[in-house]
Design brief:
Number of helices: 6
Oligomer: single chain
Radius of gyration: 14 Å
Structural class: mainly alpha
Order of helices and strands: HHHHHH
Largest sheet: none
Length: about 130
């Protein structure tokens, strides 16, 4: 049995989000999308990201935004490619696997794959 914690509580989700974005914001391709295009202050954004993952993994009710609309606006400013989504997903899954294990960690990776696939397909279709 793994000694790694699962993503089964708010604190572990917060730890994951911080570790994930710490890595992501070092990436030469993805960091500019978040910092320059979306112009988000990631520290200010963390509570929303945590609430989003708490909703998906724990059934939390604090996240009420529509993520597809947010990404549509971003895609209008800078086309989000399949490579961008694949790169995001690689960081996501490798951060989960390095730091967490269990049913919720597995679910997080499965949900992240679906999100990346669905967002890319939807945005590509809307651009056509």
């Amino acid at each position: 049995m793994s000694r790694l914690p699962d993503l089964d509580n708010s604190e572990n989700i917060r730890r994951f989000v911080e570790a994930f974005y710490e890595r992501l914001l070092q990436d030469e391709v993805l960091a500019p999308i978040f910092v320059d295009v979306a112009e988000i202050d990631i520290r200010d954004h963390f509570p929303r990201i945590c609430a989003y993952w708490e909703k998906l993994l724990l059934g939390g009710q604090d996240y009420q935004r529509h993520t597809m609309n947010i990404h549509r606006q971003l895609d209008e400013q800078r086309t989000l490619t399949a490579a961008d989504f694949d790169r995001w997903l690689d960081y996501f899954e490798s951060t989960v696997h390095a730091n967490f294990a269990g049913p919720k960690a597995d679910r997080a990776c499965m949900v992240a794959r679906r999100i990346a696939e669905n967002m890319h397909k939807t945005l590509r279709r809307e651009r056509s």
